[in-house]
Design a protein that fits this description.
The chain is α+β, with helices and mostly antiparallel strands and 647 residues long. Among the domains are: 119 residues, Alpha Horseshoe (Serine Threonine Protein Phosphatase 5, Tetratricopeptide repeat); 74 residues, no CATH class; 139 residues, Heat Shock Protein 90. The protein is globular, with a radius of gyration of 34 Å.
């Protein structure tokens, strides 16, 4: 018996020693992993293989001892390192592994991982998925102790995604948040980077002066030996936009030196080449741009995202237009429109809107839960006060009646408060319903404009098909004129469904697009130049359509009839604000003009009747001037929009 007791004691002692040795071994391995991680953090990014090796060893050791949290966070560090050397696919893979591990162990601190996925997916052009992760990171930031530098990076990322999707107001809102976070953390480099992004967003909206103010805010960057290609590129683009080429020249010269300097990543190279190309085009040196365009084509294959491909096609179109390669320019413009439509089609816009709405709804639900907890605490405090009051009443019998009356009044007030709260809740519910109705109305209006544009395009295609079966020149001409008129209306509906503003059309944009369409439509060998001089004029659909049809008729007539037997000609189009809410449209050419009495003789023609009738719809004045060519002059006053049309 004593032998068995002794044997059991020895087995128990051996088990305890084994467990202690196991814990000691695990602690030793974990300490070794922490050492490797520290070495990796201290290793500079230039020593990439060493840095990666340390973190991979640390990750392997954390996995061995079963420390899932540290293992996931080390994988996230590897994602950051590979992102820094532009290995996007590897970076995404490490970030996804980290997310999967943390979710498996129900550890919800996913801010860094979601931010890295957003950064990498944006570079690949997967904007919906990138925005989803970025907004998810912002949501988790409310419940985590997030580093301010990382928070600034996140806000900068969200701002960049919105900017590339043409949600510029939203992008600038996040850029401002990013600058605030970078300033709090004394991240000077971060502040500069975000200022550049903010300036780029303003420049894309046509606000070059405001972009220049952002760049010059604080210590002004001056060209020297420094190769900060971000600043150099933005100064070149901004001064070119302002037509101040003498000021752009020093930055351009420095940019040329930097383009042949030390190795840069593909993003920096793209910014350098785009800035150089724009300067060359603007200063009449477009023939020198093709070397840089070839480099951009090579770089476009790195991630192949729609935004950069569309920007490249537009740049190629500008270069071909400037060098007289009009067929090439037309091809690149068509490809740009296809890519642009793919990037900003109505379904994508709705999906991104739904994503933003989902994020905001989740955030509101979180706030509601917090308010409920606060309400429960408040009710508990109220109950405690009631108990104290009852004890006080029991102690002071003399004041029983007075305190009873006070308590009765208190209960009445509470009851009234509950009624008021119920009424307020009902008001809030109705407000939410109304907000949803407004949002549905906006989407329905965009869908209507989209379908109207598609239907007009179908009719244009049907007319084009019908013309193939006609031999009569007059019938063919009538069909061609009808196609042009429908295209003039189609452009208006296309603009309305592609923008957030459903009430008005920017006529300067519209005139530019219509002129390009008509130039492409007429097959002629004459080199007719178009000069556009338009103010920014916003018109509603009711006035934009007749004005567009007038422009179509006048420009088509100038192209067809103003220059018989001549190889060259010039058509000038001007839309100016005369003040006092009055505008004047002039379509003039330097062609042969018209004989005296032409207006009286041709009043019965369809084109003349159409222009005069449409001028009547505008409540404007129609006038022809025949002096060294023909000028059609329309003077009109914009109508007051109805309140329900400003949706």
């Amino acid at each position: 018996m004593k032998f068995y007791i002794l044997l059991a004691s020895l087995l128990f002692t051996a088990t305890c020693l084994s467990q202690n040795l196991g814990k000691q071994e695990a602690a030793r391995i974990k300490q070794q992993a922490e050492s490797y991680k520290t070495l990796g953090l201290n290793e500079p990014f230039e020593a990439f293989p060493k840095k990666v090796g340390y973190f991979q060893k640390a990750a392997s050791l954390y996995k061995k001892v079963g420390d899932s949290i540290e293992y996931a966070q080390t994988l996230c560090e590897l994602s950051v390192i590979y992102n820094s050397v532009d290995s996007i696919d590897v970076s995404i893979d490490y970030a996804r592994q980290a997310v999967s591990i943390k979710k498996r162990v129900k550890y919800n601190n996913l801010f860094n991982e979601y931010t890295m996925l957003g950064l990498n997916l944006r570079v690949q052009g997967k904007y919906k998925e990138a925005l989803g992760y970025a907004l998810g990171a912002e949501k988790t930031a409310d419940s985590e102790d997030v580093n301010q530098v990382w928070l600034g990076i996140l806000y900068n990322l969200i701002g960049t995604i919105y900017s590339e999707l043409n949600y510029h107001d939203k992008s600038i809102e996040y850029y401002k948040k990013a600058i605030e976070q970078a300033q709090k953390s004394n991240d000077t480099e971060g502040v500069y980077a975000i200022k550049i992004n903010t300036a780029r967003g303003l420049l894309e909206r046509g606000k070059a002066k405001e972009a220049l103010d952002i760049l010059n805010n604080g210590p002004k960057y001056t060209p020297g030996n420094d190769c900060n290609v971000e600043y150099l590129s933005m100064y070149v683009l901004t001064y070119c936009k302002l037509k101040q080429f003498n000021r752009a020249k020093p930055y351009y010269d420095q940019l040329l030196k930097c383009s042949t300097g030390k190795r840069k990543n593909h993003i920096e190279k793209e910014k350098v080449y785009y800035a150089i190309i724009q300067y060359l085009i603007q200063t009449g040196q477009a023939d020198k741009t093709y070397t840089y365009l070839d480099e951009l084509h090579k770089l476009s294959g790195t991630h192949n995202d729609l935004y950069n491909l569309a920007e490249l096609e537009m740049t190629h179109y500008q270069a071909d237009s400037a060098t007289g390669n009009y067929m090439g320019a037309i091809a690149h413009l068509k490809e740009f429109k296809n890519l642009n439509d793919s990037l900003f089609n109505i379904n994508s816009a709705k999906e991104l809107g739904d994503l933003q709405l989902k994020y905001e709804t989740e955030k509101k639900d979180k706030n509601i839960k917090l308010l409920k907890k606060q309400s429960e605490l408040q009710n508990e405090r109220i109950n405690n006060e009631v108990i104290v009051r009852y004890v006080f009443i029991a102690s002071l019998v003399i004041l029983f009646i007075i305190l009873g009356l006070l308590y009765s009044r208190y209960c009445t007030k509470q009851r009234n408060n509950r009624i008021l709260e119920a009424q307020q809740a009902e008001i809030n519910r109705k407000n939410t319903v109304l907000q949803h109705l407004v949002e549905e109305k906006e989407w329905l209006l965009k869908e209507i404009h989209h379908r109207v544009k598609n239907n007009l395009q179908i009719v244009i295609s049907l007319l084009n098909t019908q013309s193939a079966y006609l031999d009569n020149e007059d019938a063919l001409l009538a069909i061609q004129n009808s196609q042009h008129r429908m295209q003039a209306m189609s452009l208006i509906h296309q603009k309305l469904y592609q923008t957030e503003n459903l009430s008005t059309i920017d006529m300067s944009w519209y005139i530019f697009e219509l002129v390009n369409y008509l130039k492409e439509s007429f097959d002629h060998e004459r080199k007719i130049k178009f000069k556009l001089d338009t103010d920014r004029v916003e018109l509603d659909v009711a006035q934009a359509v007749p004005l567009g049809l007038i422009l179509n008729e006048a420009i088509s007539n100038a192209i067809k009839y103003a220059f018989p037997g001549r190889e060259k000609g010039k058509v000038s189009i001007s839309l100016k604000n005369l003040g006092n809410d009055c505008y004047r449209l002039i379509i003039a050419d330097n062609g042969v003009g018209v004989p005296d009495g032409f207006e009286d003789q041709e009043r019965e023609s369809l084109g003349m009747n159409l222009m005069m009738g449409l001028t009547g719809q505008l409540d404007g004045d129609f006038k022809l001037e025949n002096n060294n060519g023909l000028a059609v002059i329309i003077t009109f006053t914009p109508k007051q929009q109805l309140p329900d049309t400003a949706a």
